[in-house]
Amino acid sequence: VAWALLQEDILFYNPFPVATRLGAQTLSVDLFGGKDTRGLSTEFCAEPQFICEDMSRTDVCQGRLGNCWFLAAAASLTLYPRLLCRVVPPGQGFQDDYAGVFHFQLWQFGRWVDVVVDDRLPVREGKLMFVRSHQRNEFWAPLLEKAYAKLHGSYEVMRGGHMNEAFVDFTGGVGEVLYLRQDIPGLFSAVRHALAKESLVGATALSDRGEYRTEDGLVKGHAYSVTGTYKVTLGFTKVRLLRLRNPWGRVEWTGAWSDSCPRWDALPAEWREALLVKKEDGEFWMELKDFLRHFNTVQICSLSPEVLGPSPAGGGWHIHIFQGRWVRGFNSGGSLPGTETFWTNPQFRLTLLEPDEEEDDDEEGPWGGWGAAGAWGPARGGRIPKCTVLLSLIQRNRRRLRAQGLTYLTVGFHVFQVGPLGWLLGLWDSPRSRELLPGLLRADRSPFCARRDVSRRCRLRPGHYLVVPSAAHAGDEADFTLRVFSERRHTAVEIDDIISADLQALMVPYMPLELGLEQLFQELAGEEEALSASQLQTLLSIALEAHARTSARTSAEIGLRTCEQLLCCFGNGQSLTLHHFQQLWGHLLEWQATFDKFDEDASGTMNSYELRLALNAAGFHLNNQLTQALTSRYRDSRLRVDFERFVSCAAQLTCIFRHCSRHLDGGEGVVCLTRRQWMEVATFS
Predict the structure, then answer these.
(1) Which H or E element spans position 503?
(2) What is this structure's pTM?
């Protein structure tokens, strides 16, 4: 809930008289903390306009909310009407059958979301609390801010962020961060090239003590839009200028090439008229060397292929989008390749088939934009053919969790070259991953940082690669989206397994009972000649303890609830005959042998990360989704799986596979069940 909206002297006013009736009815309760403000409406603006003339960067002036990152991105978006119309659909206004609501389109993790908001805005002392326009009666920017707040849960969670996050949400593009230093080559060319390609560009003056204003008019810890570049010549000197804008709509740079700087007098009058606007609007020019001295990062959002349309070569863009999740105890293996759990991280096979076309390019430095060379600037690597691929990793839905005290995790990804083992990729599974992944050559890696979006352009030779996204710390949980872009042909698939079971795992093992065990069964069964769940528990307790003594392992216990499950799986649901017990005992001994392989310290438990390996060794091949569900169900709070839990899991899989195999319809693994048959299967889960 937005902290500011809970203060007693803040009311929600309906700013538009025409919407007084509908405004109160369409109050977004979720957004405003459930406070009923009906009856508080009053007229705020006599002649409201959604858009006055056109949408420009001067329409975006920051209010009391610390969301300069969002507003700087919105100001940059206004430079490109084509992009802005996607976010702010045209044809909306306060006339022509106005219904009291507005629509906005925002990109969220692979799809465009239509966000509908009413026309009620937070007002204090007769003024909008948050973003406003220089023109008092224009409201597209405050309503866009409200739509973004609604999408993420509240205004409060918009405090603090990175421009690239909003850039990506406005365009579906791919955000990259350039960390600046004094001798960085080609930055001016990179920014100029990016702006020419309609990329959104911003800059941040980082601070370790929050926002504060410097003597020369800059605000440290603040985000600025980069809205233009220009080269001017003074005598024999070429000066490279960047145009920036403070989303406050005021407070400007006062150093060289500022609005009042006398250096402008040395330029031709037509240049001054075209470039210089002498008013307090938050926009100013700055020389590149001063920019590098005061700013720490440049954030560039390249437009995604779906926004850009067909590639210049006419061959179309090659895109893959994967949705995944890191789960504690299953596939959240940490970011260090040498650790024992790293192999559990999600893995994606990337095959680069066609190298880039070499181009002559006189651009400076290592950046440029989406072009035939595919990288920022000219292709590198000499005569060695290289493929350019852009990888983007996004943490999904994390900002809305700020209300629960959670922040962005530190995340990133590694790219490993498979090399001569490429032929194995079609057979790559968990056991091979654990064995071979530590020996693969790392071809590239992204930075690991606590941002929503982490991206990297990789220049790789044609061949096979594994992309391994991970959180920095093993056990961190989050949803993620991985995107792969290239102009040249590539293939990308998630490393997964097909659900199946080895015939050996489903066959009844031939395991004759020892005489003493058979006699014990008959003694417990009595005249019924069948065991109940409690009797089975007693028999297994004695039998497993005797087996543990002969194998020098820790004795395993099977609880009553698991025994009831075993009766359902191997008996008739109520009791277990000697014949059925013989089948069960044969399976138990095989599962015990499999479990012991992964219980290396003979503690009676194995790490939950290894459950997938143990099930694989027992003959069950399961996909990632199913294995994740089983791991979450059968691990304990210490991320351990004991023998009883493993038996319960293996027994269920055995019975379900057996049951379904009787109903195969002759197709490719298609099982046709009646409702009654499905209910029988469901009782095993």
Answers:
(1) helix 503-506
(2) 0.78
